[in-house]
Write a structure and sequence with these properties.
There is one protein chain. With 870 residues, the protein is mostly beta strands. The chain has nine domains: 56 residues, no CATH class; 84 residues, Immunoglobulin-like (Sandwich); 88 residues, Immunoglobulins (Immunoglobulin-like, Sandwich), CATH 2.60.40.10; 80 residues, Immunoglobulin-like; 90 residues, Immunoglobulin-like (Sandwich); 86 residues, Immunoglobulins (Immunoglobulin-like), CATH 2.60.40; 85 residues, Immunoglobulin-like; 92 residues, Immunoglobulin-like, CATH 2.60.40; and more. 0% of the residues lie in helices and 49% in strands. It is built from one helix and 70 strands. A five-stranded mixed sheet has the order 6-12-11-8-9, with no helix packed on it. A five-stranded mixed sheet has the order 14-20-19-16-17, with no helix packed on it. The chain has a five-stranded mixed sheet with strand order 22-28-27-24-25, with no helix packed on it. Strand 16 and strand 17 form a beta hairpin.
């Protein structure tokens, strides 16, 4: 009792005194972090006797971690095992309890925190809720909840086939795309022997597999491919499918059909101007059913006829639907495609006999047919073989017809009046060799005007109640119908039954007024009938406007408000709707007819078509138009002021004119605002965005003139301001530090170099009319290679970025030199010279034998001449 107690822990000493019963307690005042701590205690009695004790303790204030898996798999939310093994990891020696479904299980984690529980009751198919609770040795606990899905089924693999082949499991390529259907999220393994590829089936269930080169061995005619799908729960199914490969080109032939091959068989000559071509397609590996799925296309006289059928024996036949011109050779190409897409072609020709006949152009009375006429005594014309005897048989009579000896042309006028209907004729010619050719033709005589009715759809008592005006009626089949209304002319054609209709754009019409119209129907022979009438659009007026429209042109509707407000006037209490960008808005006009609709969704910058519709009772009206949303103005830039400006510094421009005209490109119809030295000028861009503006006078003396430029576009947007400098420089460039150095041992080539204004153009003119050019660098240094002029001079022209120029003559020195500095030569003032007509022509001159060539040619007016001697 009354002993002194000392506690040593975590580097600190704590003391206390035992009570009369020897009891004591010591609170550790310094907070300890989680972990293991050794401690040491000494007790000293009043009489000096001592005692010692040591041990350790663990501070654990954290809830234990929990990990949970099914059957040791990475996913812990799905399984196909009805009574799965549950495993996990937490703190060592912790108590683990799991409630899953209606069952509860307990276990204790081992020394490294591992635990496992074998469930003994089957899970329900589908979602099963679970709760895992862990209590560690310090009494801390953690709870986690979730779901486990029991999935013991998998959707079958279906629809496996080639994607782009004409046949599901037959292909003409060894790198096809295969497609099919399966379970979303399942892994699909596609295998041929040891070769395999894996993909994940997407949410749409439909998968595609592009077969890589080498996956299917070339030359194989068949191949079995294995498809195995495995879903996240471990369910799987497999299919082995046989695919066939056909890669041989089909054989194809073509010729005139026997009945079209008139005259000598096999000479490819026919007098049938709409001949029939026939042929055959064959391939050794294709069955009759496969052959019958082939297709033929024929190209002749610039027209291609596709999808010509082939029978099971490979035979095909096609009669031309149009007439060829007589006396010509027509080359044709037949393209054959078998059932999997292998193709081959055959090319040949046919020749049409010159014998032909039809209605003469003066007897064609209609606009849409060359075989119909309203003339009862028509003239026929055509061609025949020169020097042949020609007879025409028509209307039960035979007549000889003369053939022009130089052209073969003939004409024949019918002498007895013909009745309405179809009339056939036959031409028979006998040529000089005794060969007989025949030609059969026909034409139609039609003298009757077509019947015609015309009205307005939905009209009642001469009125309609909406602006959708549709003309309707009936006339002769395929007749041409012409409608005249409000100064406009519109045309349509009757169908095969004679019915016709034509919708008129409501913008062409005005409501609440009588509108007159006339309709004319004309048939193929040119006979005409006329009908007329009137209608009254009895509906409600409607106006539409954009409240915050800002347009530079009356016909354009442009705004920078991406939620514009539409408004207008109509009849009071009418129902108003607006459709724009597939969204519909509605409102009701007030007692005065005013209405307004503000969009609720922002529109991205674009041009949109909108329709405003108004209804009241049985009356309707609408207006459709376009609106452009434009919320951003793009900044403009200035073009280089002259052709010599290198424009290395993109915000600086050079000129030798104190009032230059600036140009640029902007948004169409934008206002351009230019400020130079605090002086503001404005102009408008044209419809292509081009603009031009003459500046105020610039500061002289190679001085920078600061500018800023911005635009205000049609929608009222203001662009970012672009700033820079325009440098006015009217001083001709000097030419200093000129040197000449021989490049080769035989003195054929020399290098000229020197110094002038930075970025100036150096042009060397030679007697061979070639010009050699270069541009000085930022320090004004330049170098040119050329032929050695020997005893002659070099003419050099220097043009600076502002367009100022000077010309120099450099005399050839007696010996090679590299450091000669010419004496200063006075430069004539040229600031008043007009350089607006300066023309620079770029050219590329072929290299000479020594490799020297011209890169630049200049045609420049020079007002001064300086000579420099070396």
């Amino acid at each position: 009792m009354n002993s002194k107690i000392s506690l040593f822990v975590a580097g600190e000493e704590y003391t206390a005194t035992a009570d009369s019963e020897g009891k004591w307690s010591i609170p550790v005042s310094n907070e300890l972090e989680d972990g293991e701590y050794n401690y040491y205690i000494t007790a000293t009695a009043p009489d000096g006797r001592t005692g010692n004790y040591s041990d350790y303790f663990i501070i654990d204030t954290k809830d234990p971690d929990i990990s949970f898996t099914l059957n040791g798999e990475l996913r812990n939310d799905i399984t196909n095992v009805t009574m799965p093994l549950l495993t996990g990891l937490t703190e060592a020696k912790s108590t683990v309890s799991i409630i899953i479904g209606d069952s509860e299980y307990y276990t204790t984690s081992n020394s490294v925190g591992e635990w496992s529980i074998q469930t003994t009751r089957a899970l329900q198919e589908g979602i099963n809720n679970y709760t895992v609770t862990v209590i560690d040795q310090a009494g801390n606990n953690s709870i986690t909840q979730g779901t486990v899905t029991l999935d013991t089924t998998i959707l079958p693999l279906t629809g496996i086939k080639f994607s782009h082949s004409a046949d599901d499991r037959n292909s003409n390529t060894y790198t096809p795309t295969i497609e099919g259907w399966g379970e979303p999220g399942a892994m699909l393994t596609i295998s041929i022997g040891s070769r395999s590829r894996t993909l994940t089936i997407p949410e749409s269930r439909k998968w595609f597999f592009a077969v890589p080169p080498g996956f299917i061995q070339k030359g194989r005619t068949t191949q079995y491919i294995s498809f195995k799908e495995t879903d996240p729960a471990g369910n799987s199914n497999q299919k082995n499918i046989k695919f066939n490969f056909f890669t041989d080109k089909p054989d194809v032939s073509a010729d005139l059909s026997p009945d079209s091959d008139t005259g000598i068989h096999g000479d490819k000559i026919t007098n049938n101007l709409s001949p029939t071509l026939t042929g055959k397609i064959s391939s050794a590996r294709l069955s009759p059913d496969m052959i019958g799925r082939s297709k033929i296309s024929l190209t002749i006289d610039g027209v291609t006829y596709s999808n010509i059928s082939v029978d099971k024996n490979g035979n095909w036949s096609f009669k031309l639907p149009v007439e060829l011109s007589p006396g010509y050779i027509y080359h044709y190409t037949v393209n054959a495609s078998d059932f999997v897409g292998n193709t081959n072609s055959y090319t040949s020709f046919i020749k049409t006999s010159p014998l032909s006949g039809s209605l003469d152009i003066d007897s064609i009375t209609g606009q849409n047919s060359i075989i119909e006429t309203s003339n009862k005594l028509p003239t026929l014309s055509g061609t025949a073989t020169i020097g042949s005897e020609l007879v025409i048989n028509i209307n039960n009579t035979s007549q000889k017809v003369s053939v022009d000896s130089s052209t073969g042309a003939w004409t024949y006028k019918v002498t007895e009046s013909l009745g309405d209907g179809k009339h056939t004729f036959t031409l028979v010619e006998k040529n000089k060799n005794g060969k007989i050719n025949t030609f059969n033709g026909y034409f139609i005589v039609d003298t009757r005007a077509p019947e015609l009715t015309a009205s307005i759809s939905g009209i009642k008592d001469g009125k309609i109640h909406d602006p959708n005006v549709v003309f309707i009626g009936k006339t002769e089949p395929r007749a041409l119908v012409t409608i005249s209304v409000l100064g406009g002319t519109y045309q349509t054609k009757a169908d095969n039954k004679g019915d016709w209709s034509y919708p008129l754009n409501n913008k062409e019409l005005s409501v609440n007024q009588t509108i007159n119209y006339s309709v004319i129907a004309s048939n193929a022979a040119g006979n005409r009938s006329k009908a007329s009438g009137s209608f009254y659009i009895d509906t409600i007026n409607l106006t539409v406007g954009i409240d915050d429209q800002n347009s530079s042109k009356d016909k354009d509707v442009v705004t920078n408000n991406n939620k514009p407000i539409f408004s207008g006037v109509t009849e009071n209490d009418s129902n108003v709707s607006l459709k724009i960008n597939n969204d519909m808005y509605s409102t009701k006009a007030d007692q005065y007819g005013h209405w307004s609709i503000e969009l609720q969704k922002e529109l991205p910058d674009d041009t949109y078509t909108y329709t405003v519709t108004v209804n009241k009772g049985d009356k309707m009206n609408y207006i459709s138009d376009k609106i452009t949303i434009d919320t951003v103005a793009l900044p403009t830039h200035i073009n280089p002021v002259n052709d010599f400006d290198s424009h290395i510094h993109h915000d600086s421009y050079y000129t030798n004119t104190n009032q230059p005209t600036l140009t640029g490109i902007s948004e169409p119809h934008a206002k351009i605002i230019l400020n130079i030295n605090n002086n503001t000028s404005e102009t408008m861009a044209d419809e292509n965005g081009n603009w031009e503006l003459k500046t105020v006078s610039l500061k002289e003396g190679n001085t920078e003139n600061n500018y800023s430029i911005k635009i205000i576009d049609r929608a009222g947007n203001i662009s970012e301001e672009v700033t820079g400098q325009i440098i006015f420089d009217n001083t001709p460039p000097d030419l200093n530090n000129v040197s000449i150095h021989h490049q080769d041992s035989d003195n054929q080539l020399v290098t000229l170099s020197g110094k002038t204004k930075s970025n100036s153009m150096i042009v060397l003119s030679c007697d061979d009319n070639n010009d050699y050019s270069t541009r000085a660098n930022n320090e004004g240094e330049w170098m040119l290679k050329t032929y050695n002029r020997k005893d002659e001079s070099y003419n050099i022209k220097v043009i600076d970025q502002a367009g100022n120029e000077s010309e120099w003559v450099i005399k050839t020195p007696a010996s090679d030199t590299t450091t000669i500095v010419p004496e200063k030569v006075e430069i004539i003032d040229t600031h008043n010279i007009q350089n607006d007509s300066m023309n620079i022509i770029a050219a590329e001159i072929p290299p000479s034998e020594n490799g020297v060539h011209s890169q630049y040619s200049a045609d420049v007016g020079i007002e001064h001449h300086n000579e420099l001697s070396l």
